[in-house]
Amino acid sequence: MEADPVNDVVTACRALASRGCDTGIGGHVSIRDPERREFWINTFDRTLGEMTRNDVVKLDHDGNNVLDDRFVSLGAEFHAGIYDQRPDVNAIVHTHGFWVTALASLARPLKMRHNLCTLFYEDQVMSPDDSFASIGPTLGMASTILIPWHGGITVGSTVGRAAALHATLEDMAKLDVTLDASGDVPELPEEARLPLRKVIDEMSGYLEQTWDLMTRQAERYVHR
Question: Are strands 124-126 and 91-95 parallel, antiparallel or unpaired?
Answer without folding.
Answer: unpaired
